[in-house]
Amino acid sequence: MERTDITVNPNHHPARRKGLRLRRIKHMIVGKEADKGLLYRLFIYFILITVTYIYLKPVFYMVSSMLKNEADLIDPAVNWVPRTVYFGILQDAWDILHFPKAFSLSLMVSLSVACLQTCSCAVAGYAFARLRIPFKKTLFFLLLLSFIVPPQVTILPNLIFAGKLDLIRTYIPIMLPALFGHGFKGAVFVIIYRQFFANQPKELEEAAKIDGASVFRIFYRVMLPLAKPAILVVFLFSFVWTWNDFYLPSMYLTGSENVPLSLSISTANSTIQQRLAMEGPSIFDEPLKMASSFLSILPPLILYMFAQRWFVEGVERTGLVE
Question: What is the rounded distance in angstroms from the CA atom of residue 290 to the CA atom of residue 266?
Answer without folding.
Answer: 13
